[in-house]
Inverse folding.
């Protein structure tokens, strides 16, 4: 009893498990890495001089930034109108569209990059079609160039842009637009002066996420790009493998990290200012600042909330927004974006039923042989089973630790809370190769390289961050008076938590758990560093297969992996549905 | 970690770069002694063939249980293991260049040739019986052309100078990427530029890149993995390619209209080595001895077409299969051999030639 009371007084204690794991697996090693890069204890910038002394390094650094900026801009230009159209669509269409954006977001990146090879290849889908139609005589060079890299990167990053935009736009009170219109503002003016400024937090968080993810890209440039389309991550990977000179690798990693941090801090600061101007409720402000958080919070929050004053605002909105023409344009645009997001996946699914032994489209015949080869080959189903085991362990660990941390953070001072949240989120907000190298060092110190425990810890540092984000979002909307009420009726803190708090935040916890599982199940970069010979997860096996084999087993695996997010969406939906049922019909439950 | 890494590039697979610790923390202590042996056998078809032709018969003959890992061993892994004193990989296969590097750093056990039969040793090529390892298997980089693009009635490219001659032999080309230095289109670039095969080494790095400048605009893709080149040749996406012989042979067996030009083929091989200080060195020596046997090598070649390093193996291989193998005496005469020592030579700037090639390549690709 006393211990619990103490916990109640010092909620920050609840964050200790999360911070401890983070510190040991990631925090201390990254400090050590930094010390190595500056030649501690001598302290010199020698390694940094060496890095910038090589013109190729400087050029590839600028190229990395340039590619990331361009990809981010394309995502924004395509994503903003898409998000706007999603938000203004009717509720059922909107839900469908959000799900359609979420599914590719949750699908294996390896599988999606692979799909583009099939589509753009010299004998790929597009070229074959054009050749058969007689429109061209020799294949167009669609792959192995910068355009292909952008196509692939934007394809992977677009949902990351759209989802925060949607969440920010959903929070905008439509009556503001109506008010502007009623005072004579033309639709464009109303949009530009009212709606757009209010959607800026979404723009910032989306762009931020996309940019930082892009900095760490290397799979896509290597697979789809030409000779010159190297990114700094590719160079780092080469260094890791060819000479394993830890100080040189650390230096490159920190330069990449510095770029990410510079951008994060610039946009992050602005974002707070915008929040203040928008006079968002104090508790919400830090929540929205964290991009995934804001997105998911809105996503989960959206379902239970009946849409306010839907009819008249929507009508006001659309009157004078003239014309079916813009509606037609909008529909076509959204359709095109959805085709872009889903076409590659569909191609892979079709190919997975191929009867041939090569990657060909259209397949020469239909068969289930590659599914059989997946389920019959112990190296495939063994890898899948390993991934499931690791994923479940990561889910359990990070859900418990992350929920505790979120609960603790929710009850600490905002200043401390902001700092600690940032610390917990570091592994999901910096380039993944940096995380990988730091984690590798951390696990070497613990003697856990190549063990399942090691991989679980490595995956957990990212997964905990995601759980904290999602559960915090739910807690932010949680009415603490309910807890007080329970306590006033002499429920102990544990009982209050189990009977009142937990059921109410359960959707958040389940959502966190699902995303934690996916984080682990799809993780490739960090795993490839820390797994060693002995542990083969599914993404590692897919990767080995891509190197050594060219049979469509990989297509079958990718198709199965696309089913995973669909399953998870069903889980999420059911969780929400159950919680809403309770909200709406509390009485029968009380009676029971 | 880079997306396409071919299975021959042992140095660069990051996952295996950290394998040392991997093995140490996973295998229970008891598994490391007694009748056990941990061996890397390579991925894909090579791994399968190695298990069939070597691992299973070895287990049957000696009663030693082999833990065959379908991965490639790596320099970094071996270095980490030996230096941390926790050697859990008993036998590994590494590329020629890597083995020489590892030997230079004192990471490898000496091979005990006293347990080898004289007739087997006599059959082995001289380069194949080094103090630090035995060579197995041999493979090569060859020029492979599409027979529809280059029908027998027309002249066909037979030298690397022909490959560089885009006027006389028009067509889409592909070469291996040089991103990792230890293997790249270096020798081919010099041969194309007129350097005689016997004077390739020491290689003139400036001359390599001047020669590569000329062919750069005509290369569709600098491939990184065997699966890539196999797919490109199958798709007829290229007319003439630099390819592993094994990948091309697989395609020919499947009826692809391609032919291998064995002239100026570049020979490479792996060394089977024993990391220093392991618990099962004696068993490892037995496995190494097993690798050199002509009958085992012959059995392997009939599953997967790679060249024997024991010449006696050819006596046991049907002529039809022998025609496929890169160490066939008929082909050896017109081939060039990779000089692993040159790649490890350290210049006045403290860099090995491999590191220097990587630096130059990184600059060159961005030009």
């Amino acid at each position: 009893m006393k211990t619990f009371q103490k916990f109640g007084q010092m909620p920050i204690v609840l964050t200790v498990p999360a911070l401890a794991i983070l510190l040991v697996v990631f925090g201390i090693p990254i400090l050590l890495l930094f010390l190595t890069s500056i030649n501690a204890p001598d302290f010199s910038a020698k390694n940094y001089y060496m890095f910038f002394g090589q013109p190729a390094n400087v050029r590839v650094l600028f190229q990395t930034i340039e590619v990331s900026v361009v990809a981010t801009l394309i995502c924004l230009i395509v994503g903003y109108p898409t998000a706007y159209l999603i938000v203004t669509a009717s509720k059922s269409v909107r839900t469908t569209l959000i799900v359609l954006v979420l599914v590719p977001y949750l699908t294996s990146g390896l599988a999606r990059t692979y799909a583009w090879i099939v589509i753009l290849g010299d004998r790929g889908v597009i070229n074959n079609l054009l050749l058969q139609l007689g429109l061209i005589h020799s294949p167009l060079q669609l792959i192995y160039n910068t355009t292909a890299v952008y196509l692939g990167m934007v394809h992977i990053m677009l949902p990351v842009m759209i989802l925060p935009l949607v969440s920010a736009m959903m929070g905008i009170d439509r009556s503001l637009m109506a008010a502007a219109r009623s005072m004579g503002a033309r639709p464009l003016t109303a949009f530009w002066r009212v709606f757009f400024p209010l959607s800026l937090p979404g723009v910032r968080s989306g762009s931020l996420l996309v940019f930082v993810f892009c900095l760490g890209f290397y799979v896509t440039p290597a697979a789809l790009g030409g000779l010159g389309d190297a990114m700094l991550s590719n160079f780092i990977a080469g260094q890791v493998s060819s000479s394993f000179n830890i100080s040189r690798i650390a230096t490159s990693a920190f330069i990449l990290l510095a770029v990410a941090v510079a951008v994060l801090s610039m946009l992050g600061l602005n974002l707070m200012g915008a929040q203040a101007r928008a006079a968002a409720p104090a508790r919400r402000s830090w929540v929205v600042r964290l991009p995934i958080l804001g997105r998911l919070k809105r996503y989960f929050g959206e379902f239970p909330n009946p849409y306010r004053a839907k009819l008249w605002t929507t009508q006001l909105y659309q009157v004078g927004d003239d014309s079916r023409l813009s509606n037609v344009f909008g529909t076509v645009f959204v359709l095109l974006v959805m085709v872009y997001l889903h076409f590659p996946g569909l191609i892979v699914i079709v190919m997975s039923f191929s009867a041939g032994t090569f990657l060909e489209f259209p397949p020469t015949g239909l068969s289930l042989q590659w599914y059989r080869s997946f389920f019959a080959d112990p190296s495939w189903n063994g890898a899948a089973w390993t991934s499931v085991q690791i994923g479940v362990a990561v889910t359990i660990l990070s859900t418990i630790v992350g929920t505790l941390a979120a609960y603790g953070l929710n009850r600490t001072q905002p200043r401390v809370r902001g700092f600690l949240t940032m610390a917990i989120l570091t592994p999901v907000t910096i380039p993944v190769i940096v995380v990988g190298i730091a984690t590798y060092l951390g696990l070497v110190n613990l003697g856990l390289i190549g063990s399942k425990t090691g991989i679980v810890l490595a995956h957990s540092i990212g997964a905990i961050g995601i759980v904290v984000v999602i559960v915090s979002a739910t807690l932010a909307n949680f009415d603490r008076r309910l807890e007080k009420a329970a306590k006033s009726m002499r429920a102990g803190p544990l009982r209050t938590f189990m009977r009142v708090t937990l059921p109410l935040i359960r959707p958040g916890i389940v959502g966190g758990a699902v995303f934690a599982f996916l984080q682990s199940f799809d993780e490739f970069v960090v795993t490839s560093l820390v797994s060693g010979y002995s542990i083969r997860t599914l993404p590692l096996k897919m990767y080995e297969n891509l190197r050594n084999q060219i049979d469509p087993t990989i297509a079958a695996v990718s198709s199965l992996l696309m089913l995973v997010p669909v399953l998870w969406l069903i889980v999420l939906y059911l969780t929400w549905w159950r919680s809403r049922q309770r909200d709406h019909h509390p009485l029968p439950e009380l009676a029971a | 970690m880079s997306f396409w890494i071919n299975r021959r590039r042992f140095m660069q697979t990051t996952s295996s770069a950290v394998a040392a610790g991997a093995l140490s923390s996973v295998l229970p202590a008891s598994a490391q002694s007694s009748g056990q042996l941990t061996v890397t056998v390579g991925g894909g078809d090579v791994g399968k063939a190695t298990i069939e032709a070597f691992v299973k018969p070895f287990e049957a003959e000696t009663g030693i249980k082999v833990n065959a890992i379908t991965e490639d061993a790596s320099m970094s892994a071996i270095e980490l293991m030996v230096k941390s004193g926790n050697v859990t990989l008993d036998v590994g296969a590494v590329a020629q260049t890597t083995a020489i590097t590892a030997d230079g750093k004192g990471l490898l056990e000496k091979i005990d040739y006293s347990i080898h039969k004289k007739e087997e040793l006599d059959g082995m090529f001289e380069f194949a019986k080094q103090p630090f390892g035995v060579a197995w298997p041999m493979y090569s980089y060859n020029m492979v052309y599409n027979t529809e693009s280059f029908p027998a009635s027309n002249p066909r490219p037979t030298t690397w100078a022909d490959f560089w001659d885009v006027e006389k032999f028009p067509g889409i080309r592909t070469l291996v990427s040089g991103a990792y230095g230890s293997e790249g289109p270096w020798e081919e670039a010099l041969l194309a530029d007129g350097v005689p095969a016997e004077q390739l080494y020491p290689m003139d790095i400036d001359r390599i890149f001047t020669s590569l400048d000329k062919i750069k605009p005509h290369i569709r893709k600098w491939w990184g993995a065997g699966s890539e080149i196999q797919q490109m040749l199958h798709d007829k996406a290229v007319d003439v390619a630099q390819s592993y012989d094994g990948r091309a042979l697989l395609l020919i067996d499947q009826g692809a209209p391609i032919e291998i030009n064995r002239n100026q083929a570049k020979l490479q091989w792996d060394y089977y080595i024993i990391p220093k200080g392991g618990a099962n060195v004696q068993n490892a020596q037995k496995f190494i001895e097993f690798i050199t046997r002509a009958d085992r090598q012959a059995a392997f070649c009939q599953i997967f077409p790679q060249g024997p390093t024991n010449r006696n193996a050819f006596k046991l291989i049907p002529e039809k299969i022998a025609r496929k193998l890169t160490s066939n005496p008929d082909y050896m005469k017109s081939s060039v051999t990779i000089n692993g020592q040159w790649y490890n030579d350290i210049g006045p700037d403290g860099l090995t030639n491999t590191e220097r090639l990587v630096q130059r390549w990184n600059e060159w690709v961005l030009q």
